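Reading group handout, session on sequence-to-structure problems. Before we discuss, look at one worked example. The prompt was deliberately terse, the way you'd type it at a terminal:

> structure Xylan alpha-1,2-glucuronidase

The input record follows.
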Amino acid sequence: AEDGYRLWQRYDLVQDAAKLSAYRQAIGELVVTGDSPTIAAVRKELQSGLNGLLGQAVKVSQAPGQSPALVAGTPASSAFIKNTGITDRLKPLGDEGYLLLSTQQNGRSYTLIAANSDIGVLYGSFHFLRLLQTNQDISKLSLSSKPKIRHRVLNHWDNLDRTVERGYSGFSLWDWHRLPDYIDQRYIDYARANASIGINGTVLTNVNANALVLTADYIAKVAALADAFRPYGLKVYLTARFSAPIEIGGLKTADPQEPQVQAWWKEKSDEIYKAIPDFGGFLVKANSEGQPGPQNYGRNHAEGANMLADAVAPYGGIVMWRAFVYDDKEPDDRAKQAYNEFKPLDGTFRDNVLVQVKNGAIDFQPREPFHPLFGAMPKTPLMMEFQITQEYLGQGTSLAYLSPMYKETLDADTHAKGKGSTVAKDIDGTLHKHSLTGIAGVANIGTDRNWTGHHFGQANWYSFGRLAWDHSLSSEEIADEWVRMTFTNTLAFVKPVKEIMLGSHETVVNYMTPLGLHHIMAWDHHYGPGPWIKDKHRADWTSVYYHKADENGIGFDRTKTGSNAVAQYFPPVAKQFGNLKQVPEKYLLWFHHVGWDYKVKSGRTLWDELCYRYSDGVKGVQQMQQIWDSMQEQVDEERFQHVKTFLNMQEKEAKWWRDACLLYFQTFSKRPIPQDLEKPA
Ligand code: GCU
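And the output record:
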């Protein structure tokens, strides 16, 4: 059934007859050298991939023989590859890169998938299969690739009871009850999917951590997962609850300056590494939203992080310490807190610590300006944290292709070292010369048959991985690959569906939070609108705090006359964002409180513009529906109906957002909704 289980790894017969015959011709036989578990995975993947795509059993040989062959291996495992003289071309590709090369030897044609390491061969093999899946020419290959970022990890917010915080696609994949004995095929398929896009790490547990995962029983279960993932180059990491020494260690304190606490973490790390020699390390959320941390003992984030870093350092482990902090004291502007707490600590973290920063300073909003910490901590490697799961983006029912959103942040210019100091350059280490680099994505994966709930959620997992490997790829290229692999190469489908995808994020922004509005979702669960929320718990957990609508206007003044959060950016950026005339309109109400009659770029008043944006959002969904409806002939019934139904839900949601927000904001603006727009229901 076309239920989406295979993700983008569909190896169905190539439909283009000319391409099919060219591929069959070029791959007369398959030679995969070596005998590691990774190479066994390569052999299996290429064999099943080619059998499916070419529609015939591919001949598997030990060494290249008479026919044109596909040869995969390293110079160390294959004399043939070594003798082609490509060793020098491989050197700069490091331990994960690969080379795909068409070459002639003794008058015969060969296609090489070569790398310095077995993992490189695996990545190259997936790339090669992608070329076939997307019907590319493989006759004159000469391409090499290596990742720009070293640690490319998923963050699962999975609890030990298998619920998933902010998960909208079923329950956690990790079946703790049946582990360590039972290895579900799904774990292998999960690892395959990740390897196919270059993801090389996975944090198994929620950042709101449960210390139990660090007990012996769970370590054995985690080790079983690590064993299953290892052939695919996927390392496991765990979240470390800072108070674990008290909760499971029987100590009276978790103070990082206490020798017994340090010793406890060292012993715990020894125990973990004994079971999992290549354990990746810890991810920590500390002193944020009620989580314990070093500040409970009067210590700072670096002192906390360094203690853990010292415990895993002997094994090459790393600590990813999150900068998403907000505490129990009400700030004058929550957007400023991470910068204020972390910037002064620059230079005080151990070498194996990464500070993991969300793309924006509030919280995974449909659109945020880039986080001011990027560029601002030259002595500390900063890691990007994106959210793949759509907590604030309509959750499981909305089609929102997030690559354009990721790119918007990655391409943003921090001006840290002059023009061109993009966020991407900070996290890939080129800006401040770091070799320890990382990027994380909060996973949208669960036990749903199609993994991500919405079929198009798969595209977000896919594009996160592709951008983690190479942030210079365009959203369009990534969508193109994904659509071809996931659905079909038929242009009559590929083109319109890409159009749906590329416009979808802007559409969602329009009907939820246009013009820089943010955090006006319903309270706590964050699904649907709730701009009126004001009386819960504390000011910065309410919506009115963020939009500040009143009779004069709307928006959060983060300039000098307000919270001055804008001053956290480097001067050219601060100047631009802080200036009402220069701020990009998409961030207008993020930084400015603007009068209802203020004239925006379109020439309309702010109020009218807001009305048009919300209604554009609804129209955008209706356009997606129209396009999708016209695709019925090009796609299987099962996925067609699924997406159609979800788009119908999204249309309802969009209208709900538009009507709720406009009617609510109208109580302040006291202005009519422009005549030519559909009236709120
Ligand atoms: C958001 C989210 C929480 C999560 C937090 C975090 O606030 O709503 O569920 O725990 O981010 O990233 O730590």
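Points for discussion. First: The mean pLDDT is 97. Second: The pocket of alpha-D-glucopyranuronic acid is lined by residues 165-166, 207-208, 285, 324, 363, 391 (CB under 6 Å).
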